[in-house]
Amino acid sequence: MVNRNSFMGRLFSAIGRFDDFLGRIGADIHDFLKDINEVMERSFTVLTTDIPEEISQYKAYRKRICHLCGEKVPAGEGMASYSSFIIYHDKCFEMARMNQYSEKR
Q1: Which of 32, 67, 77, 97 has the greatest count of CB atoms below 10 A from its CB?
Q2: Mean pLDDT of 21-25
Q3: CA–CA separation, 56 vs 17, rounded Å?
Q4: What are the residues whose beta carbons fall under 8 Å from the beta carbon of 8, sequence distance 6 or more?
C-alpha cells in the first residue's frame, strides 16, 4: 500500500490522471478517424456506382429508350423527365401510375 501524500502516491495519481486524459483523447481521435473513413466510403460508392448509373441512364435517355420496357420511344411521343433523364412510353407511364395508385390503396 502506498501513502497518497508520498512521492510514489502522487506519481501514481499523476500517471492515473494522465492515462485518463490519453484515454479521452484516444476515443476522440478514434471517432474522428471513423467519421473520415465513413465519408471516404460514401465518396467511393458515389464514384463507383452512382455516377456510372447516371451516365448509363443519360445514354438511354439520349437514345430515347423507355425506362420501363426498354423499347425505343418514337420522337414526339412519351413522357420525359428532364431532371432525372428518364423517358417512358405513354402506355408504360399510365401503367406505372396505375400500379402506384393501386399500391397506395
Answers
A1: 67
A2: 84
A3: 58
A4: 2
